[in-house]
């Protein structure tokens, strides 16, 4: 958990400890080579500064998360296919209905259909009724 809390997250640009406590954790490296000391303020000054810094950090993290979310959405939208269906297109319909006396393991659950209109309400079977 120490490594996770001390690592800078790509989506926020900050460490978990930095977002929650407004300071970096002291790592074993810091114990060996030293860590810069922080100034001691009065309790009131420290609490006011801390509240201001935490609000600032949270606002920055929210902006960074929104930016990353927008970037991911743009990338997803570029790859998505929103052409939709047109009348006459072949589509597959999932039909898990069981027939009495047949093993569901051997049944075809997908049926090939042709769209007759622009909505899904009008579909007709693509198979020859005499073949069944």
**How many alpha or pi helices?**
4
How many domains? The number is: 2
Query: Roughly what percent helix?
Result: 40-55%
Low-confidence stretches: none
Rg over C-alpha atoms, rounded to the nearest angstrom: 30 Å
> What are the secondary-structure elements, in order, as H or E?
HHHHEEE
**Major beta sheet, specifics?**
3 strands, antiparallel
Q: Which structural class do the helices and strands define?
A: alpha+beta
Mean pLDDT: 78
Terminal CA distance: 61 Å
Spatially, the strands of the biggest sheet line up as: 1-2-3
The outline comes out as elongated
% residues in beta strands: 5-15%
Count of distinct strands: 3
List keywords for this structure.
three-stranded antiparallel sheet, 41% helix, 132 residues, single chain, elongated, alpha+beta
What does this structure look like?
It is a single chain. The protein is α+β, with helices and mostly antiparallel strands. The chain has two domains: 2-79, no CATH class; 90-125, no CATH class. Helices cover 41% and strands 11% of the residues. The chain has a three-stranded antiparallel sheet, with no helix packed on it. A hairpin with a 7-residue loop joins strand 2 and strand 3 (123-125). It is elongated and about 80 Å long. The N and C termini lie far apart (61 Å). 1% of the residues are buried.
